[in-house]
Amino acid sequence: MSSTISVTPLTGSIGAEIGGVDLAVPLSNSQAAEVHAAFLEHHVIFFRDQDLSEPDRQKAAARLFGEPVAIPFVKSLADHPEIIDIVKEPEDVGKYNFGGNWHTDTTFLETPALGALLYALEVPSRGGDTLFADMSAAYDTLSDGLKSTLNGLRALHTGKRSYGSQSKFQGGKNQSVSMQIDATEEGDKLVSHPVVRTHPETGRKSLFLNPNYTVSFDGWTEAESKPLLDFLHAHAIRDEFICRFRWDAGSVAVWDNRCTMHRAVNDYEGMRRHVRRVTLDGDRPH
Ligand code: SIN
């Protein structure tokens, strides 16, 4: 059957823009299958000129990819625990912006997110882009020797620096006036995940580490771990493995959190940016 959507890859490794789809209405089975196939192939997909300002519509669109889930520490929308507003106000000058370090969402949980659907309600006239990194390409391009070492390792992840005792948001510090992030000792918990994860749907392997939440290899000290973690993080964000998305109001990004990292660029001081995220429930990495 001929395709009813367009899929335009953004780079040689990651990201594609999808056309011919209105996410505000139910998709036909074949359209939904094509969109899902593009999501798995390109790891992050983008849509323009969408209207998902109604929270139930955004959740319905997110269900094309997985089941919406509430996340800890960040205040959600009233009546919609699966949705968070990510806002930087003009007066939030000099503050860290939410999602501003390279990270994979909620890897401090036993079952990190499958992915997320982010919808832009208001964007600055310039800046505020989001970067995405392809962790499968990062894995594929390592030497066989390093691959085999990493396949035998696990790593420890914690929300300590974001949502625990070392939280950059502690006591309202760094926090946008329009967000509420509650750091608690629950954020200090350490969780162990394999360093190389096999994608449950595609069978492809990817690196499963990120500089925001990964603190060490399991059984290694932080000092022992740091040189190799630093190498892997630098390798993972090489230009060839990255795409950069320029938002307009009405743009949508859906990323596969099982094989990507992302980072929100903080280069629009004095302007407002408001995006809204539905997080999708994930499984235990293997
Ligand atoms: C996030 O990390 O979920 C937010 C990304 C963004 O605001 O671009």
Report how far apart the termini are: 35 Å
- Strand segment count: 15
User: What is the helix/strand order?
Assistant: EEHEHEEEHHEHEEEEHEEEE
CATH class: Alpha Beta
At CATH level 3, the topology is Double-stranded beta-helix
Query: What's the arrangement of strands in the largest beta sheet?
Result: 1-2-3-13-5-15-4
CATH superfamily caption? Clavaminate synthase-like
Could you report the average pLDDT, rounded to the nearest whole number? 96
Task: Note poorly predicted spans.
Answer: none
In this entry the ligands are: succinic acid
CATH architecture: 4-Layer Sandwich
Structure class: alpha+beta
Quick recap:
The chain is α+β, with helices and mostly antiparallel strands and 286 residues long. It has six helices and 15 strands. The protein has one domain (6-280): Double-stranded beta-helix (4-Layer Sandwich), CATH 3.60.130.
